[in-house]
Structure formats: structure tokens, C-alpha cells
């Protein structure tokens, strides 16, 4: 985009950038700073100014929002706060949840017994699982299966564009393979930006139950897309 005032663009987008950063921050550990997320969001916005192509039929606003979120997620993946021992426990919890059907609900007490940990530790694990999975699915949705296109690679290369289109198609298929309630949760959370608490009120289930269903959804999607 040419003949634009970057300062004006940043000023206009800053409230939305702060909103996106705050929405991410509420599920992140305390060592992640709001200002860092906002700064990464501004970088994403500036990148969108350079790369936006109106001929692709996407509004600049939609394109910029995607870039802003993507920049924040790239930053969070780079700092990678989870220690190995915690990662191992989270993997075990994921395996347990993956075996649950959509209508099943495994209590914190049952998880504590299976994992041989306290209920307090179960809550901590679930919080970390939620954080990592939010980033995981957001990365699939925003950066096409967590593939980073480096700055020295031509994003308009026909081969790259074709591969990204395939990944988008596969993601859509994977989401459509979910049952109706799972698809609704994906839509409400990722498209409507509702919290688990708000979704729980709509579905008349607890916030904890929504969180557990969300975890199961991500496990399913990652498997269908060939993720870990």
C-alpha cells in the first residue's frame, strides 16, 4: 500500500491490537508481557501494509487482523515457556482426553488418580494445556499448519500458494468432520471471539466442560492434519 501515513494506520488499529493482545494474555503465564504482544502486533500490522494485495478480494482490515494475530503467535512460539517435564505431563493428559467421547466428562479427581498427581496439579496442567492448545489451533488457523514462510521466500510462488491452499482445504475438511456441537464451539471461540464462560452459557454447560471439549477438538484436528 502506497501513499499512506503509517502513524495514522497504527493509531487506528492500536485499540484492536490491544484487544487481541489482552484476549491472548488472559490464558498466558505471568512472564508474558502485554507490551511485548502489542509490539509484535504492530510489527504484524506494518508487514500487512507491505504485503496487502486488494486484487485477492480480501479487505485490508481482515488481512491486517490475520497478520497481527499471526505475529503475536509467532512470538509466543519462539519464547516457548513450557519446561520438558511439564510438557511430558501435558502429553499424558492429552492422550487421556483423546480417548474421551464428546459426551464423556472426566473429573479432575479422576484425572488426578490416573496421572497420580494432586487435584491442584491437575488444574495447573489443564491451564497449561489450554494455553498451548490455544496457540496450536490458532497457529493452524492463521499460519496454515504452523508453516512459517520466511521473508526471503516469495509468498506468491505458485508452488507455495498451491501448498497453502491444500492445507486450508484439509483444515476445512477436518473441522467439518467434527460433530455439530464441536463445530459450534470452534466457530464461537475462533470466529466470534467468545470466552469459554460465554460459550458455556450458550450451550448450558460449565466453563470447565467447554475447556475439555475444546481440548478434545484440538487433539482431533491435529491428528487429522498430521500434527503431533
What does the model show?
With 228 residues, this protein is mainly alpha-helical. It has two domains: 1-81, Orthogonal Bundle (Rna Polymerase Sigma Factor, Chain: A); 82-228, Butyryl-CoA Dehydrogenase, subunit A, domain 3. It is built from ten helices and no strands. The radius of gyration is 19 Å and the shape is globular. The N and C termini lie far apart (38 Å).
Strand content: under 5%
What structural category arises from helix and sheet content? mainly alpha
Q: Count up the helices.
A: 10
Architecture of the largest domain, CATH level 2?
A: Up-down Bundle
Termini separation comes to: 38 Å
Can you tell me the CATH class of the largest domain? Mainly Alpha
Question: What's the average pLDDT?
Answer: 76
Poorly predicted regions: 143-155
Number of domains: 2
In total, the number of strands is: 0
User: What is the radius of gyration computed over CA atoms, rounded to a whole number of angstroms?
Assistant: 19 Å
CATH fold type of the largest domain:
Butyryl-CoA Dehydrogenase, subunit A, domain 3
Profile the largest sheet. Answer: none
| H/E element order | HHHHHHHHHH
Estimate the global geometry from the Cα principal axes. globular
Binned, the helix content reads over 70%
